[in-house]
Amino acid sequence: MSSNWRNNYTIRLLLDFASLSFAFICVRLYITKLSNFPVISTAEIKVFFISCLIWYFSAKANNLYDDYRSRSFAYEIVPITKVIILHSVMMTVFVFYYYNADKFPRTFTSLYTILVLIILPIQKFAQRRIRRNTLRKGFNSRNVLVVGGGDLGLNFYKTVNNNPHYGYRVVGFLNDEENSHLSSLFLGKLGNMQEVLDNHIIDDVVIALPNGSASTVESLVEIGEKNTKRVRIIPDYYRLGSGNFRLSNFGLFPMITVRSLPLDDSENQFFKRVFDVICSLIAFTLIFSWLFPLIAIIIRLTSKGPVYFIQERWGINNEKIRCYKFRSMYTYSSDIGSDGKYQQATKNDTRITKIGKILRKTNLDELPQFLNVLMGNMSIVGPRPHPTPLNIESKDNVRNYMLRHIVKPGITGWAQVNGYRGETAKPGQMQKRVDLDIWYIENWTFWLDCQIMFQTIMNMFIGDKKAY
User: Fold this and answer.
1) Helix orientation angle between 73-98 and 446-462, rounded to the nearest 10 degrees
2) CA 425, CA 347: separation in Å to the nearest integer?
3) How far is 221 from 204, CA to CA, in rounded Å?
4) How many Cα neighbours within 13 Å face the side chain of 243?
């Protein structure tokens, strides 16, 4: 562990303890005012000491003190929330088990938890802002030597320059071939590494060489470690997928997962599933119980045919699912055009009924898919499932198209709330939709799902130009 990281870790831990202290004292003063208990006692000291221990071990277990400089606060809030919940549960057990109501009022744990839930996220956010501003001004930055002046090294350099809050400053490059893009940052060839380390203040060595340079990398690592420098290697695999790589061990073999996804985690899958079921049951109980019969009656009165439209679509792992919708087209309508291709709904489509236009405009036609959610083959939020003919047309023509099926499809999705719903007639529209779907898959959080649901509800009321 480098001294710089260790210092940051210590500061963050002490700030958390200070926040716990502030919350503890505020609650204790409030209770003292109500009940005339002494402010300081042996019981208070014991409880606070245990609280700090519980916080420390909960934080360690949930990786709260990992380096989140290159991640958004929305990503960091997940471990913060986990630690606060675990801390509150364990504190409740401890207080109720060891202290009776006379010595320690029952209201203490509730008030303490609420205050910690408010103070800690605010403190973390403020700490992040202060640290970013400090790093932007060049304080506490780490000097980096980049070994490799190709596309990989230059992309790393651009990332560092565009994100000063990461806290790195590129001192220069080592590269065997001349590259005009390096200009004054060129410090020599790979063989000059020892000389460069002797003559420059370097904290980290970042090796950004193409795959296949194993023997060269081995010698460079050896030189770096002999000079007590922290050596980092950027694997040249980003061309194969996204930047979400994960390194794990399989026996004695290190193994790189090219695309590591948040929903690969069984805990996240369980949490998302529970959220889907609870929201669906609430919706059926409070809204759908009266709304579904009303829509069904209107559909039957305005056009002949069934109330529901059931269509085969592709779900997770390309599994065929029966997707439910309220029927919005005339029963004699065909999905296949005269050219033999799948015919998407278009603006002023003559196949759509009058009530169907309203249902599609307000997204009400999609509501029966909450049945799919309860059955487990769809989620409330995820990539929209496409009909089988559209999947067949797109899977070989749209880059990364089939990766959409690595998670459950959703009633609404990131692409839809960003304006890429409905018809994809123009070149590039389907690709943009797929790109947004994959971004969602790679960056999933519970809060992102909440944001998408909120945006979808807002669009239902204000209308969507592409809803037809």
Assistant:
1) 120
2) 11
3) 11
4) 9
d(C-alpha 155, C-alpha 91), whole Å: 47
Confidence (pLDDT) at 5 = 44
Average pLDDT over residues 285-313: 92
Q: Which residue has the higher pLDDT, 85 or 425?
A: 85
Residue 1 has pLDDT above 50, yes or no: no
Distance CA 216, CA 213 (A): 5
Using alpha carbons only, how large is the chain's radius of gyration in Å?
A: 28
Burial of 220 (0-12, 13-18, 19+ CB in 10 A): buried
Answer yes or no: are the C-beta atoms of 119 and 146 closer than 8 Å: no
Strands 308-314, 320-326: parallel, antiparallel or unpaired by DSSP? Answer: antiparallel
For residues 23 and 238, give the distance between their C-alpha atoms in angstroms, rounded to a whole number. Answer: 45
Contact 407, 438 (CB under 8 A): no
Angle at 419 between CA 417 and CA 424, to 5 degrees: 125
Domain end (from 83, 107, 136): 136
The pLDDT > 70 percentage for the chain reads: 84
What tokens appear for 448 in the block?
A: 């992102």
Are 193 and 70 contained in the same domain? no
Q: What DSSP element (H or E) covers 314?
A: strand 308-314
Residues β-bridged to residue 379: 410
Same domain for 206 and 178: yes
| pLDDT over threshold 80, residue 436 | yes
Residue 295 lies in a domain: yes
Query: How many CA atoms are closer than 13 Å to the CA of 435, on its beta-carbon side?
Result: 8
Statement to judge: residues 158 and 125 lie in one domain = no
CB 217 within 8 A of CB 208: no
Q: Are 28 and 39 in contact (CB under 8 A)?
A: yes
